[in-house]
Amino acid sequence: MDSMLSSEVAWVSQYKDISDVDELKAPDCAETFMTMLLVITDRYKALPTARCKLCFLELQKELVDDFRIRLTQVMKEESRNPLSPRYCAILNAVNYIATVLSDWADNVFFLQLQRMSLELGSELASLSALQTGRLASMEGSVFDEMISLLERLRSDMMGRLVEFVLRETKEAARPYCKERWLSLPSQSEQAVMSLSSSACPMMLCLRDHMLQLQQSLCITLFKTFWQALAEKLDMFIYQEVILANHFNDGGAAQLHFDMTRNLFPLFGHHCKRPENYFKQIKEACIILTLNVGSALLLRDLLRQDRGVQVAALPSEPSPEAALNELGIYRLAASDITILLNLRTNWPGK
């Protein structure tokens, strides 16, 4: 293991130039380590007694745990910059080992070892009653504990990565949060709509980081990353840009353009309907860009529902039905009231 991790190509994928083969983007050290485990398995398969086989299984589990600890140590050295190639390679390694062990759990040989360990009363491994029950019911596998620890490390690393990119994006978004949405020219006064200049640093930051990570992480990890980032971005922009400002017609139109024609398409490379990952932003834009007549009707309907005015007539739709008709499913009626109050284009204003 020392030589695996100290090799010059330890953190480089053997198949980095063959995209069809390199789906998991496993670095050389992880590939070599799993090959070693496979060779050990092939050699002890032929041993005559169950007890001897289980001894080697315990050895393999100890090796996996040792390798996980070593990966964790290297990760901590790289954690200041989760975008570094080595940090991403460690994340790929952890994911690769967890994936292979999960596949091995369904292997006939390891299922036989699972049965053997139960028949021997788990003498060679101190299993809890819960673990023994899972093994006996064939719900779990002999590698469950190792897989759980690896998945926890993977989750921790992914969290650090998302938070790092989010922090850099928030920093780049500062000018955008302070945009004068209250006094922007209306859409009819502009020949062509274009991205807000204050949004450019944020969009560039997102584009560059996502491109870099798409190239560095395996497909499943990158998908987990961008979906988690989208969820946090949705909350950030909704709270720090939308709820923190007031909007005239021009400001609402500009926000809608920035989001639907620039932010959403950044994620559109990875899914068909990126707006579904930004539901708060999407629905807020619908409310802010409603024509004045529809906005007035909606405001009155919401007021009636809260008992501010007389009860609504039976022929009038419920607030929920009215919102659904507009494409609002995520935000509550109270949120819509707040958003309507952020508009400045009411008659008489």
TrEMBL record:
GO biological process, any:
regulation of ER to Golgi vesicle-mediated transport
Return the InterPro entries for the record. EXOC6PINT-1/Sec15/Tip20_C_dom2 (IPR042044), RINT1_Tip20 (IPR007528)
Q: Which domain of life is it from?
A: Eukaryota
Q: Which GO terms describe its cellular component?
A: Dsl1/NZR complex
Q: Which family does it belong to?
A: Belongs to the RINT1 family.
Q: What is this protein called?
A: RAD50-interacting protein 1
Origin organism is Polypterus senegalus (Senegal bichir)
Gene that specifies this protein = Rint1_1
